[in-house]
């Protein structure tokens, strides 16, 4: 009798249709506010989910748009879930993983496992995918010999091809962006200790000079100097696995982010290369802002520098249209449609 009382109660499960998120009546309801719990429900049941429990391919901007949240609000909510150990992500590879999902959604038969093979092939190769592989293997193979055979038939052996390691970091909120440069340097040193996978691209001194020249042009700061600290920051962007085009897009995204360009309660710009290339999360955030700029901060006045930049953006767009969609800076960068930035070979 006592043993029966000590037995844990069976978990209760409910089936939720993914198409709920597109249902006409559901979409007329009050939307989810930007919060950790709301994001967690979305991660578990949203239209991005696939047949393999807990692992899917999606980017930050795509999910934020699906929820009608600002990207900063999404990052804050994701940070809450990450800190609780509920979810991990490699935003560069666009891979998201909910570690405990497989424990709550075990396959009903070996044939179900076999059906996951095609979906697994669509998940981009990265270090996080290797971690997911080991977790799925442990959970599925533990169900019995038949499940073990099915697992290796569907998933095979890990390829060992890992791109950039998942940073496990979400984009920081605005308060973090306002930290002093001494704190930025400390975080940079900590990230170097974590051992990022080196990029296959080896930047030359000329590459670094061009990146900085593009930053000077975008930020209207021709007198700024390319000192050793800024060189190290740009080189770090390459070391994190990003290419010249990515770094230029990040610079552009920062220049289009009102908060970083001085529209904040401090009337201070947070746009130095040391902040833009602070970590992978910052770079990815600003890359996204290059094509989907955040709106001005409510109630924050636009600085004179921001006004000049906004006017320059409008002039550039008009000029671009006049020259068949192409504009070129003096330092070797080609800007297509005012959005895409590439470095000439």
Note the gap between the termini.
Answer: 77 Å
Question: Helix- and strand-based class?
Answer: mainly alpha
Q: β content, as a range?
A: 5-15%
The radius of gyration is: 23 Å
Number of DSSP strands?
A: 6
Q: pLDDT under 50 segments (min length 5)?
A: 1-9, 160-198, 321-345
Taking strands numbered 1, 2, ... along the chain, how are they ordered across the largest sheet? 1-3-2
Order of helical and strand elements: HHHEHHEEHHHHHHHHHHHHHEEE
* Average predicted local confidence, pLDDT: 77
Global morphology: globular
- The figure for the number of domains is 2
Number of helices: 18
Largest sheet: 3 strands, antiparallel
Query: Helix share of residues?
Result: 40-55%
Describe the overall structure:
- It is a single chain.
- The protein is mainly α and 345 residues long.
- The chain has two domains: 2-155, no CATH class; 179-343, no CATH class.
- Helix content is 50%, strand content 6%.
- It contains 18 helices and six strands.
- The chain has helices spanning 2-6, 24-28, 36-45, 60-67, 71-83, 101-104, 110-114, 117-121, 127-141, 145-155, 174-177, 181-193, 205-219, 228-239, 244-255, 273-276, 280-291, 304-322; strands at 55-57, 88-90, 95-97, 326-328, 333-336, 340-343.
- The protein has a three-stranded antiparallel beta sheet with strand order 1-3-2, covered by helices on one side. It has a three-stranded antiparallel beta sheet with strand order 4-5-6.
- Helix 3 crosses helix 5 (71-83), helix 4 (60-67) packs across helix 5 (71-83) and helix 13 runs parallel beside helix 15.
- The longest helix is centred in the last third of the chain and has 19 residues, at 304-322.
- The radius of gyration is 23 Å and the shape is globular.
- The model is unreliable at 1-9, 160-198 and 321-345 (pLDDT under 50).
């Amino acid at each position: 009798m006592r043993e029966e009382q000590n037995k844990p109660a069976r978990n209760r499960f409910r089936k939720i249709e993914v198409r709920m998120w597109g249902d006409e009546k559901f979409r007329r309801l009050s939307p989810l506010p930007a919060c950790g719990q709301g994001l967690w429900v979305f991660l578990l049941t949203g239209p991005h989910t696939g047949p393999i429990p807990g692992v899917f391919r999606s980017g930050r901007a795509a999910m934020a748009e699906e929820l009608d949240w600002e990207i900063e609000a999404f990052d804050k909510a994701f940070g809450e879930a990450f800190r609780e150990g509920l979810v991990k992500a490699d935003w560069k590879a666009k891979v998201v993983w909910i570690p405990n999902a497989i424990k709550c959604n075990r396959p009903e038969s070996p044939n179900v496992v076999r059906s996951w093979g095609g979906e697994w092939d669509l998940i981009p190769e990265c270090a996080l995918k290797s971690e997911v592989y080991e977790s799925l293997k442990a959970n599925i193979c533990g169900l019995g010999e038949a499940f073990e055979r099915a697992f290796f038939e569907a998933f095979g052996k890990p390829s060992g091809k890992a791109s950039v390691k998942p940073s496990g970091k979400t984009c920081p909120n605005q308060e973090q962006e306002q930290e002093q440069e001494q704190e930025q340097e400390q975080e940079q040193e900590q990230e170097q200790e974590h051992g990022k996978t080196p990029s296959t691209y080896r930047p030359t001194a000329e590459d670094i000079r061009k990146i900085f020249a593009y930053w000077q042009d975008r930020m209207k700061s021709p007198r700024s100097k390319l000192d050793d600290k800024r060189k190290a920051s740009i080189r770090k962007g390459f070391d994190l696995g990003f290419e010249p085009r990515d770094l230029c897009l990040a610079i552009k995204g920062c220049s289009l982010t009102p908060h970083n360009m001085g529209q904040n309660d401090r009337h201070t710009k947070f746009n130095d290369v040391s902040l833009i290339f602070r970590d992978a999360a910052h770079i990815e955030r600003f890359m996204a802002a290059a094509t989907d700029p955040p709106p001005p901060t409510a109630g924050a006045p636009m600085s004179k520098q921001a006004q000049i930049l906004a006017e320059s953006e409008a002039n550039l767009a008009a000029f671009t249209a006049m020259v068949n969609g192409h504009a070129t800076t003096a330092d070797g960068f080609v800007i297509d449609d005012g959005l895409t930035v590439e470095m000439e070979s």
